[in-house]
Amino acid sequence: MKILEIKNKARKLNMESIRSNPSKYYVLSQPEACNGKTIFLLSLIFSSPGNGTRQELIRKTWGSVTSVQGDPIFTLFALGKPALVTTQEEIDIESQKNDDIIEGIFLDSPENQTLKVISMTQWAVAFCPNALFILKADEKMFINLSGLVDYLLSLKEHLEGTYVGRVIHQDTPNRDPHSQEFVPLSEYPEKHYPDYCSSEAFIMSQDVAHTVYVVLNEAPITVPTDVFVGIVLC
């Protein structure tokens, strides 16, 4: 797709079919979580089924921050489905207790991390369009929300087009055919990837999330997801 076509589709996204039937896409959807809220930063913490202890630790530490300098922060955990029924039961209990878990209908596995990014970007666009910025962070990360908000506040005059994180420079495609992340020359012939933000943690403005969602849904993904996002936005 051409850049202008992508941006046009992103501006005109109609998410009503997803909003009206969230159970088609999510086991746990929290569809009203953002309703009526002013949200400066939506934090989506990518966690794994069975990691309830780590989630609880985050809830009690940096995830407990709900505002910085008066700017509201809203934190949710992003999961895929577990392999075990007993683990699902534990997730259901945690969700009922905390109302902060989004669970996609896909199996949470290394092979499905692209689906996870698509699903959670979709959720942010469909159910939390009032969030100015969206943070995607792995559960192993510790986020200094005060410092992050200070930085984002400096961008308030330029809310659109924001995509920031730890930049990976001159990364090379994996050419090992036995690797899960193998990228053949026929799919990506260049020696290096363009600069992109590490998937461990990055921030997008709402318009960028719209653009990423459009492309992730319509273009074949032949490189790692974080690389692909960087290619889309470079």
From TrEMBL:
Q: Does the keyword Transmembrane apply?
A: yes
Membrane disposition: Single-pass type II membrane protein
Q: Which domain of life is it from?
A: Eukaryota
One Pfam family this chain carries?
Answer: Galactosyl_T
Q: Name one GO molecular function term.
A: hexosyltransferase activity
Task: Give start-end ranges for the coiled-coil region(s).
Answer: none
**One GO cellular component, as annotated:** Golgi membrane
Annotated localization: Golgi apparatus membrane
InterPro entries, alphabetized:
Glyco_trans_31 (IPR002659)
Which pathway does UniProt place it in? Protein modification; protein glycosylation
Q: Which UniProt keywords apply?
A: Glycoprotein, Glycosyltransferase, Golgi apparatus, Lipid metabolism, Membrane, Signal-anchor, Transferase, Transmembrane, Transmembrane helix
One of the GO biological process terms: lipid metabolic process
Q: Where the protein is mainly located, per its record?
A: Golgi
The EC number(s) attached to this protein equal 2.4.1.-
| Protein family (similarity comment) | Belongs to the glycosyltransferase 31 family.
Query: What is the protein's given name?
Result: Hexosyltransferase
- Organism source for this protein? Cricetulus griseus (Chinese hamster)
Lineage of this protein's species? Eukaryota, Metazoa, Chordata, Craniata, Vertebrata
